[in-house]
Amino acid sequence: AQRAYEAKNYARARELVTSLLAAKPAPAMRENALYLSGQISVAEEKWDESRPTFETLVRESPQSKNRPMFEFGIAEAIFRQGDYPASEERFRRLLQQPQGPDPSWPAVVRLRLAQTLCHQEKWKDAYPIASQIEKEFPGTFYVLAREPRFLHHSEVLVLARRPDAPVSRTAGRAPERRGQ
Question: Radius of gyration of the chain from Cα atoms?
């Protein structure tokens, strides 16, 4: 299933994951299969499917080392469905996590939080968050452009992943998140 997912054969990956879950695997295997199912839904931009999958993971595996990724999956689905106040709350909570899956985790979460604030036209809140990312995480992100529609609102920065920056585990798992 993982190989099919990595080959972007999402239909086959979903078929294999569904079969595995139907076999009622041990808890650790179930967690991995559910997470892969969530990743498949994210890759296919099926936010109404990904959110319940990540919510199930949080409920069934509250002590998992991967819980930050499950929580991010929920926040991302909420963001992609356009509920910006709820996604803002979730991304703010994620910033309070002691650690994420890799060193760029806080930058990824801050970027999405800034974008959430922009969608709510909270320009004065978004700008300091977005402008600090490159300072705190040099080499990971850069200013791609100044978005013209934001210029009259404190010049909110639009950030994207540098093409030459090392790909983090977070970005590698969900490439559609980069530069959004």
Answer: 17
Are 56 and 34 a contacting pair, CB within 8 Å? yes
Contact by Cβ (8 Å): 156, 126: yes
pLDDT along the chain (180 residues), means of 10: 96 97 97 96 95 97 93 95 97 85 80 90 85 73 43 43 44 33
